[in-house]
Amino acid sequence: MKDSATPKYQTVHDELLSRLMAGHYSIGTRLPTEEVLSKTFEVSRVTIRKALELLVRAGYLTARQGSGYIVATLSPPSSTCMVSFTDQVLNEGHIPGAKMLGISRPVKDLPAEVTALFDEPVVLVERIRTVDDAPRMLTQTWLPERLVPGISEADFPSEGQAQSILRVFRQRFGLEWTSACETLDSVIADGAIAERLEVPVNTPILSQACTAFDTEAHPVFLDQVYRQGPINFDLSGGKPTQTGA
């Protein structure tokens, strides 16, 4: 570690975060022990513990008694309601997947809720999200074309940690959002949705629409999700969070 005016624990925190984002530690896996990290960074265990606690507070890690520090997510919810679907599935011990249905731009026939948000050309990204190869969600994500120049299907991996659309938007296009508004409803699967989710027509499913906003309250994207199964809410810490796409 090089000398600087930055506190040692902050330097360790920044390096660990960099390693997390680079994929050195997979979601759901345990970090090296405090003793090992202490030797690696040549600092005290107190310094290591303080750096790890910062990552816990930020949502990247969870501390488990007897198990050490576990990688929880690479996309903490921060002040928004959105938690990565990819990360939650990995943490549950299952395999997430993403099948690209297509990217449309510009889209002319827009739903009313989209035109109410964006008065400019928009892009539509459609994917099927799977758990252990079984379709679980149909996602339709709308956002202004100017925010994602050059967007293509190659930007969206079909497997691994990088398939999270939240990380694609942040890491590939530098998008940021600080708040979100969500609407949940029960709907009946029509023919197109039923075919993609591999369920009978008229099956009751959940509709989940989440709009993300930037610091000036401008909409960044609208994520419309049709999903099988329940949504899990985490009320720990007094702030509800749930899975996003």
Distance between the amino and carboxyl termini: 37 Å
| CATH architecture annotation name of the largest domain | 3-Layer(aba) Sandwich
Please give the order of strands in the largest beta sheet: 4-5-6-9-8-7
Number of strands: 10
Helix content: 25-40%
Spell out the CATH superfamily of the largest domain: Chorismate lyase-like
Count of discrete alpha- or pi-helical segments spanning 4 or more residues: 7
Biggest sheet, in brief?
Answer: 6 strands, antiparallel
SSE pattern, N- to C-terminal: HHHEEEHEHEEHEHEEE
Domain HTH gntR-type: 6-74
Pfam family, one: UTRA
Protein name: GntR family transcriptional regulator
InterPro entries: Bact_HTH_transcr_reg, Chorismate_lyase_/UTRA_dom_sf, Tscrpt_reg_HTH_GntR, UTRA, WH-like_DNA-bd_sf, WH_DNA-bd_sf
What can you see in these coordinates?
By secondary structure, the protein is an alpha+beta fold. It has two domains: 8-71, Arc Repressor Mutant, subunit A (Orthogonal Bundle), CATH 1.10.10.10; 82-244, Chorismate lyase-like (Chorismate lyase, 3-Layer(aba) Sandwich). The chain contains seven helices and ten strands. The chain has a six-stranded antiparallel beta sheet. A two-stranded antiparallel ribbon has the order 1-2. Strands 3-10 form a two-stranded parallel ribbon. A hairpin with a 2-residue loop joins strand 5 (122-131) and strand 6 (134-144). Helix 1 packs across helix 3 (45-58) and helix 2 packs across helix 3 (45-58). The chain is globular. The two termini are 37 Å apart. This is GntR family transcriptional regulator. One of its GO terms (biological process) is negative regulation of DNA-templated transcription. Residues 6-74 form the HTH gntR-type domain. It comes from Harenicola maris.
